[in-house]
Every structure is written in structure tokens, then in C-alpha cells.
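Morning. Coffee machine broken again, so started the prediction first thing and wrote up yesterday's gels while waiting. Chain of 315 residues, entered below exactly as on the submission form.
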Amino acid sequence: MEKKNFTTPVTEFVLLGLTQRPELQSFLYVTFFIVYINTWLGNFIIITTVISDYQLHTSMYILLPILAFLDISKSSVSTPKLLSVLLSQHKTISFNECILQMFFFHFFAGTMRFCLVGTVVDRYVAIYKPLQYLTIVNRGVCMTIVALAWLVGLVHSAIRTGLLLQLPFCGPNILDNFYCDVPQVIKLACTNTHLAEMQMNFNSGLVIIILFIILLISYTIILIKIRTHVTEGKHKALSTCGTQITVMCLQFIPSIFIYALPVKQFALHKVVSVIYFVITPMLNPMVYTLRNAEMKKAIRRLLNRMLFSRWERQI
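Came back before lunch.
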């Protein structure tokens, strides 16, 4: 393979971040800090509500706390580094930290995508086999889907980072972004990376596109069935599917842009990255709660129990 004129192994990468303007950096720091706190708060409310409310201990809601935990985890991999880059003058990340950031992000993101496959399976059975729903989609089946999603996410992430670690990094070490990710880091390898980039695109971009198309087709079939055959509970079924489709689009569309359609104009790339890495984990719990009547009722019950318990202690 063709070598470049660099010999010193890279020990750290320099992150240029979102902007070099100090006044804009302060504004973005406050904004993203608030977003990060809301991400934790919103997803923690979902986890607490589902776990504590017996009425939500059903197959339909068993994936919600898993997805909420993945949102918190995915956001926590990238957002704290974004905040430190905005606040610090020394905008670097060590090579090992960079690899770990990529590994854990793709682990959580890959797991989430395959958990969303579980939600479409849940809706398919609920619409097409309503009388057998509780028998088919039982707790054991749900836990199997979750376990497979975690396993697939682990394998997916291990392959990506494993392929990257086989490349030599001896300079340059400047990343025009606020985080480490494969499409940018791979271009810094001091060797011909054309074949490695093709492998990465196949491992991630093509898989994401195929999975997204399969989910779109599945939801289209489900929506047609609801529209033409379902009479009782049609509004609730449409609302549930609408929630899941919204979350699916928030997850897949930005990731397709980042991993399947690599671009050279980093301004737009950074905007999409911020939406995917920082904003989407905050929006998902809002989608779950605002579009789901049962979740809103469960949150009210949780708040009432907390207020009543506090009132009793004061007495």
C-alpha cells in the first residue's frame, strides 16, 4: 500500500469543533448543555415511568426504557466532548479515547436501530394477529429481540473499529469536526484508504439503507391494513405507528446522510451530525410522550404518586 511521508504514530487528534468564534462558542455551549440535561431528564422519566407503572408492563412498552437508555448512552458518548471542545482552548482527543468514542457510539446506535426492528415486529403482530398477540409477542420474545439487538450492535461496532485499527495513523491528525467518527478518521490514515472506505460504506451505509427500506415497506403494509381493515381502535393504532415511524426517521435519515452519502462540505455535515448526535436523543422521549396517550396518563400517575407521597411525609 502507498505510504505517505509521515513516520511518527498519532497519539491524539485535534478537533476543530463547530466554530472558532468565541462569542458563538459560549452560546452553543449553553444551548447544548440545556439540550443534554433535557435528554437525561426526558429519557429518565420514560425509564422510571415504565418500570414503576404496572399498567405499562406489557410487550408493547417493554422496548421503551431500552430505547430511552440507548438515547442517554448515545448522547453521553458525544455531547460531553462537544461541550468540552466548545469550552476549552486545548481541543484534542487521545487516539485511544477516539477509538473508544467510535466503538461505543456505533454500539449504542446499532443496537437502537435493531431495537426499532422489534417495534415494527410488535406492530405487525398486533395488527395482523390481534387475537394471538399476547401469545406471540410475550416477554420472552421481547427479551430475545432486545438481546439480539445488543449482540448485532456489538458485532457491527466491533467490525467497524476493528477495520479502522488495522490502518496506520502517522499524520496528519486534524479532524474538522467536534467528535471522532469513522468517515473522518479513516481519511487521516497514512495509506491508501480507498478499499477500507468501501468496506466501511458496505458495513454501515448499505446496511442502514437496506434496513430503512425494509422498515418503510413494513410500516406501509401495516398502515394499509389499519386503514382498510381495522375499525375498533384505529386512531390508537395509527398514533402508535406514527410515533414509531417518527422515531425511525429521526434515527435513520441523518445516519444515511452521514454514513451512506459522505460529503466534502463539512458545514452541512456538521449540522446533520449535531441533529443526529445531540438533538435526536432529546426529541425521542418527546415523541414517545406527546404522541402516546397511555404514556401521558402514566406520567401523570407517577407525578401524582410522588406528590402524594411527599404530602404524606410532611404530615
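Confidence is low (pLDDT under 50) at residues 1-6. Going to sketch it on the whiteboard this afternoon.
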